[in-house]
Structures are given as C-alpha cells and as structure tokens.
From TrEMBL:
Residues 56-194 form the Glycosyl hydrolases family 2 sugar binding domain. The keyword Hydrolase applies. One of its GO terms (cellular component) is beta-galactosidase complex. PROSITE patterns: GLYCOSYL_HYDROL_F2_1 (PS00719), GLYCOSYL_HYDROL_F2_2 (PS00608). Monomer. This is Beta-galactosidase. It catalyses: Hydrolysis of terminal non-reducing beta-D-galactose residues in beta-D-galactosides. It comes from Sphingobacterium allocomposti. It holds the Pfam family Glyco_hydro_2_C. Belongs to the glycosyl hydrolase 2 family. It is an enzyme of class 3 (hydrolase). Residues 752-851 form the Beta galactosidase small chain/ domain. The keyword Lipid metabolism does not apply.
Amino acid sequence: MIPVKYILFCFFIVFWSVGSEAQSRKEIQYLSGVDNENTVDWAFWATAGRRAGKWEKIAVPSHWEQQGFGAYNYGRDYVTYGKNFRFNEEKGIYRHQFSVPAHWKGRKISIVFEGSMTDTEVKINGKQAGDKHQGSFYRFKYDITDKLIFGEVNQLEVTVAKMSDDMSVNNAERLADYWIFGGIYRPVYLEATPTTHITWTAIDAKADGTFRAKVHMEGITAKTPLRVEIKDNDGTVVGASWVDVNHDDSTAMLHVRIKDPKRWTAETPNLYRATFTLGPEGKEIYRTQERFGFRTVEVRHGDGIYVNGVKVKMKGVNRHVWWPETGRSVNRRIDLEDVKLIKQMNMNAVRCSHYPPDKSFLEFCDSLGLYVLDELAGWQKAYGTPVGKRLVKEMVIRDVNHPSIILWSNGNEGGHNKDLIEEYHRYDLSRRTVIHAHHRPGNEINGIDCNHYEDYYSTQKILEGPNIYMPTEFLHAQDDGGAAAGLADIWELHWRAKLGAGGFIWNLADEGLVRTDFHGAIDVNKVNAPDGILGPHREKEGSFYAIREIFSPVHIKVKTLPQNFSGEIAVENRFHHTDLRQCRFQYKLVSFRKPYDEQAGLDTLLVKDVPSPAIAPGQQGRLKLPLSAGWKTADAIWLTAVDPYGEEIYTWSWRIKNNAAIAKEILPLKTKSAVSLSEDSANYTLKANGITVVMAKQTGQLVDLANDYSMKLSFTDGPVLVGGQYTLTAARTFMDGDSQGLEFAYDGDLKNIRWTMYPSGWLKLDYTYQVNKPVPYAGVTFSYPENYIISAKWLGNGPYRVWKNRQQGVTLNTWENMYNDAKAGIGPWIFPEFKGYFSDVSWMQFNTTQGKFLVVTEEDNMYVRLFDFYGISGPKGYPALPEGDISFLDAIPAVGTKLAMGINNRAEVNGPAGELNSLTGPITRTLHFYFGLPKGEEENMQFVMPKENILTD
C-alpha cells in the first residue's frame, strides 16, 4: 500500500489542475457543497411524500429521502408494482441563486452535475439549459454562457424526477436489488474556460514507455501549437512532444516515447502526470493536466488476463457507493477508507457494481493500486440504445485516463445492450476489453466468461474452457455466510487453473440505511441488502480477516509446527509483480496470559527479524527463522509479513506448547480438602474444597452444582452427545488415590463418561464416543442460561468465530469478549460476535452473574460453541445448531451462502471444506472444570512463568 504522503500529493494535483485562478486554466465555482459532509442549502419543493407541497431548505448534495422528504423505495418494490414498474412519481424542484465572477466574462461557462437521480431538467434565469438528462450515475454538463447575467444575481432551477420518462432507464437503474433514491447527490459547480480550450483527452500509455494521447479541443481559430509534457511522481520531466493544430480542428494526436518507465500495476501503482498546453510557450491559451500510468493490459483468448506481460488473477470484491446516513452521497474520506479496507484484505481488484463510482474512488484506486472494472448501470435490464450511447460516452470520457480501470463492464446480469459494445472504443484510445457481468450462459464476450454464483464443481467444469473464467459475483456474503466460507477451495481452483482469472466476492458492505422516517433505525430491507463482508459503517466481520489470510500473497500452508521444527517454513509467492525479497518478515516468541490474569493478551519474550528470501512471483521457497536458544519454553510463535510499502500482509501463529502442557500448568491448587461422595435414590453428590457437584444416576449427567463462596451455578445437563443415540447400561463409583469418581457406561454412540473430583475442587470429565456416519458436528454439550453470561476469556484462536469452511483469519492468543447479541448483516454490528464456534481452545473462563467457572482440555483441536446463533437468515437460521448452550466439540458445521441454503445448508457445493465431517475410530477427550474462585485462592489460580522461559537472543 502507498504511503499517505503520495495520497496527499495526488489530492493536491487534482485540485491544482482545476482550481488555479490563472486565465489559461479551468476555474470552478461550487454552487453546492463538495460532498455529503460539506453541503450548501438550496430551496426545495417536494411534489409528493413527506414534507411535500411547500418550499423548504435542503442540503445539496444529498438524497431528499435522507433529508426527510419523499418516500423510501427498495428496488425490489417492482414485485409489488408489476411489470410496468413506475412505483414513485416524486419530483423535487430545487432553486438556488448565484453570482458569476466578473473576470469570467468572455469565457465559456458550463454548469456541471456530477450525479443526479434521475431525470434532470435545468433552467438558468428561466431559460432551459439543454435537453433533459436521463441517467443517475453520470457526469453531465450544459453550456450556459449565453444565459448568465454578469453583475447580477442569477437564478438556477433544477427539476429532478425520481423515476425516468425513459422506461429503459428505470429498468436499468431502478428495477434493482438496492435502495432507490432521488435528488442531486453529487456536487454541482460552474466551470469556466477560455473559449479556446481542451475539452478532454484520452491517453494510451503502454508498459514499454509508448505514450499516445487523443486531445479533444474547442474554439481553435488559428494555427496553434499543442504540447504535452510528462513528469514522474517526483516532478522530473521525462518526455515531451508537440504538434500544430489548425483552424477548426477538434482533435489532435500526440506521441511520446519515454525510456524505462516505472510501470503501473496494482502492486506498483506508479503514476505520471501529463500537462497539455495550447498556445506558444510564454503565451499559453489553455493548460490542463491528467494523471496516468504506463501499463499494458491484454486479454489473451484461451489463456488469461495479462498486465505488463504477466498473467494476473483477480482477488476482488464488488462495491456499491454507500454510507448509511447519506446513501450514495459520499466523500473522499469514505472512498479512501474503502480502498484501504479492500487492500487490507490482500485484494487486488474491485468491481464498481452496478454503476460508476465517484471519481475520487478511482483516483485512490490509481494511487494505492487496485484493478478496476468500471461498469455501466443495468442491473438485469439494459438501457435503450439512444440513452445508452449518451451514458457510455459520459462514463468513458470521465474515467478513461485512470490506469486502474483495466476493463469496461457493459451492464449486469442480462442488462447488456450489445449495440453499445463498440461505443466504448469510440472514446477509449487504449480500447480496453468490454465484458458482460452476467449470470446466464451465452453472455460470454471477448473471450471472458463472467458467470455468477457458480459452485465449486461447476467452476471446475467451466475452467476446462474454452473461455477465461472470471466470475464478477461469487460467494454471496449475506449475513455471516459466503464471502470467506468456501473461498479457500474455490480460490485454489482459480489459482491453479490456466483459465482461472479470479473473481469478485459479493459484496463489500451491508447496505444498511439510516431511516429518517423510523427515528434513525438502520434498515437492511431484511434479507435483501445485508450482503457485506463489512457492516454499514465498515464494521469488520470475521470474513474480513479470513479473506486476508486466504488472499495473502505470502502463502503459507503450515498449520502446526512439526516436532523436529528447525525454523524453516515453506512459503509460496503469490504476488504477480513483487519478489519476496522486497517484503519484510519478523517473528515473535510469546507467552500467553492465564485465566485469572487481569487482562487477556500475551507477553512478548523475543522479537527477531527474519531474512527476506529471494522468491520470484509464482515460485516457492522457504523462510528461515533464526531460532534462539530456549525457544521451546515459549508458548507460541507469531510470524508477520510486511509489504514493500510498510503495510502488514498477515500475521500467522503456531503453538509450541500443546494443551496437555498448558493444562498441567493451570490445574494445581494449594488449598485442598477431603473428597466426599454421597448418594440418594436419584443422584450422586461429590464435594471437595467447597465445591459440590450432583450427577443423575439415570443419565450420568451433571444436574446441579454449587460453590460455598458464591451462589449456585446453573451449568448443568451434560455431557449430552450432540446428535447421538445411546442408553445407560451401568454405573459405578471408584477411588483414585485421594480422589473420588463416578463412571457410567452406555450402549450406542456414547461409550462412557468418567467423573473424577480432586481434593483441590477440580472436576475431571473423561468421555469416549464414536460416530459412524458423516455429521455436521460432533462432541458434547451442556446447558447454561445465556442471560447470566457477562464475558468469556479463552486461550485459543480468536477473537472471531469460525466455521468448518472458514477456519482462516484467527490468531492464537488469550482473548476476552464481552457478551453481545450481534448478528452479522442484521445488527447490532458489534464485532467480534460473542456467540459462535471458536477454534483450537485450550481453556475458557466464563464470567457470569453467578460467578466464574473455568474449563480446560488436555487434547488439542477443541472447538467451543457458545449459545444460539446462525450464519444466514432465511425461513430459519442456517446452519442448524447442536442441542444445548455451551458445547465442547471435535467437529463443527460449514456455512453455505444465500444462494445455497435449503436442506443441510448445502455448504458442500462450495468445495470439500463444506462437506460433512467424517470422524474415524473412537474419540476420547478430557475436560477439567473449576466452578468458582475460592476466597483467598486468587494467587493459586495464577501460574508462574518458569525462569527458563525468559529468553535472550
């Protein structure tokens, strides 16, 4: 990722090029505010809905719904309104007065709208500025020079209709799976230029240093020189050229060749600046600037997509322009934040679905490095040809010089007007390939198949050819499903396949809208709009971090360290243009905090840099950690990779000590008492060191417990074997030294339960079971009232929950989560969620209104399930949960996607990781429970770091 200083530099360039007061440059005067946080009040009249029928004030830019006017509509409202789809006839009438600088007299003056939803009619001083504009997501302008009055106040009147008179515009933009708005939602400004000026340019800059520019001009009245000067990011002139243009010329071509350009890619976003000047040196008539990058994009049919001669695979996401309080009216800060979040997931690409974004978003994609699909609107219906041609021109003219844009997308899922395909090349000198983002066979175009929501097995088939396969939507991320679940399997298919070009997850953020008619409640329109990896305000769900690991260009498969570990870790370089010697690596030896330490977390024992190996893109090699003497006395190793720009790629963690060693350090207590055993007709009762536990004779399950120093604990009704069938066949009591025990034998899936009470008050549970068929989950469960839980602290992977097919993105540490009832996609958007499946747990301490209790396991690879939750909403929550409230599991279920729910959640369609669990042989696990914290025993519950664990280099 690029340092902030480059971002600020680019920001300066944009505004310097349009904001200088020099007469040879374009000048602008904002009539509205510049973004959703900096607005200007205009007079406003709503024709229908809330606050209609009177003149009021409205912030511009904005959507009028978010200012308390009109009515809300979600695009799926067409289901109610039927085939003709005209559900809302709201219009907004805007009025605003303005003056024009006196020195603009004699110049050409235009009024520019960056975006207005949707049919827009403009009058200046009562005169029509031009034809009604139709289309919501595009910059348009009118020449109003002859309609202005200098030295007086001018009157602007704009009428905006939420629905278009052109039904193809409604079908393309409003009959869609997203919120529908009205209003002037992007800035409005005046633009003044000399009458002789450059209107726009189209640049084609190749990786070999070849630069071509087609310059469009107006008002050429005599032979005039046209020059271009190219500067690098440091401001050094690296090339220049000029031609003469003649009277009435409207276009001219400029050619330059520079030596050894710094090439643009998503990994190396090197930018240049071209300054175009009309007029002789010292007597400039007009000057303008464009940022660009030298790069060559090729679509090689039957092979792949190449950038600068290297095949690239898209690790991408779909993005709507969105902010909960202001809808599609946003600002540069939001655009920058989204680009940085996408980069943090180790993604390299973004699809601008289902319409072109604000220009600033593309500027940040240029400067930080993302491959972009810029898309014409057309959700599942296409624009008609006349209006479509105008909108293609507006989109391409605005965006053509962004090096980040590598493909044009001509609509989505059937919204493809094939008559528009050649229109893109009329304005794009580099003739980028046009694709169709589709979900129906037969819409492949230009050698690329973008079919949506194929599963793992159909993806295998498509990757056999003949087309390059690049799904522009896959793994639907509604709620906590999709996104990273199954991604590792499907990504491996694309990474290994010749024709795999990667793809774009649906989508970046939940489209949750702050409703001004419902006291600011956030509305995701139930199951329609909570489709994000992030929450509406960019809250990070667990999938965010899982994607970050799966897409890490430093690809490490090691899950556990071998017993003879010598410091070598196998690594694959999955960058396309970066050698791993350009990255930095560092490892830590850490020890984890204990159950009764005040805070969760870890202590760092040693930090050492790791020599960066020279591993070329696409190659494999080894990292060699310089292990210190005594490293085995630490609890774990953390390894961090940092990219060439100083941004963390990912941090991996591996255990050094197993659970048996950790349990041995936690279990001893100084205070002890004799263990007593009593029984009645229904129960056995064990008691030691102030702790009393009661087991039912008919089941062997814990049915009651108490601690003399606190209230009774409601942790009961277990162990129950989840999904198992069994009956009790025998029970006995036994003595084991100074400990007293109970043993129960069963016929069926559960084989035996063995309870042992120690003089310290620790209660040991040993159990054995066997599962003879594929199952979604396996293990034992207990009951505990969710309402009594305050927090949970544990040593294990976290802080996010996992699914069988989304194990990535979690780190080994001591974590603590406060109780919350968060539901991904629905809210409240509090992450990490308290409830879920948590992996590789050594111990977990529950803090409750009844006191604390602790559970420790001796065996590795235990999952803990906490309470009731689900991954995807639908007719019911998916996937189904085990019985009980708190479960200790050896296997957990996978989660599917919105498009793969049905019976058993159908997670298996997205790859092997989504299949049911097949466990072999009998499974035995030991759990240790301590119910409470006895008075005066706090120091005994700590465990002290042995002196040999203090490491030195």
